[in-house]
């Protein structure tokens, strides 16, 4: 996503006429794409401080602090899967060390079918 699409096109688009508490709601459609979709010069997503700098520079929104942005839009979704929230059928949490031991044991004791020539 190109960041230039998110720059304000007029003074009205900066929402300066709205009180600070209500500006969060008005600016949320700008902050969310910055956080989730925009890419910096390194090809990675923008950091919270880069978003705060963008908001200060283009929207004169100086209240964009890290904890306020995270509270307003939530955390960036992870593309990796985690076993930290997996529950077993009996309701217990998954023990990662026990799972690793089990998988290692299964791999170690796996029988390999012999390869016969000409078959």
UniProtKB/TrEMBL annotation:
- A Pfam family found in this protein is Clr5
Q: Which InterPro entries does the entry mention?
A: Clr5_dom (IPR025676)
Q: What are the residue boundaries of the Clr5 domain, all occurrences included?
A: 21-66
Q: What is this protein called?
A: Clr5 domain-containing protein
Origin organism is Podospora pseudoanserina
């Amino acid at each position: 996503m190109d960041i230039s699409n998110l720059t304000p096109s007029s003074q009205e688009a900066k929402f300066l006429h709205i009180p600070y508490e209500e500006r969060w709601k008005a600016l949320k459609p700008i902050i969310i794409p910055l956080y989730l979709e925009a890419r910096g010069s390194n090809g990675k997503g923008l950091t919270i401080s880069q978003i705060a700098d963008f908001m200060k520079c283009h929207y004169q929104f100086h209240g964009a602090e890290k904890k306020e942005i995270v509270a307003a839009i939530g955390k960036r979704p992870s593309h990796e899967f985690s076993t930290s929230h997996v529950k077993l059928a009996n309701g217990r949490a998954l023990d990662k060390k026990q799972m690793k031991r089990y998988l290692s044991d299964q791999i170690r004791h796996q029988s390999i079918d012999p390869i016969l020539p000409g078959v």
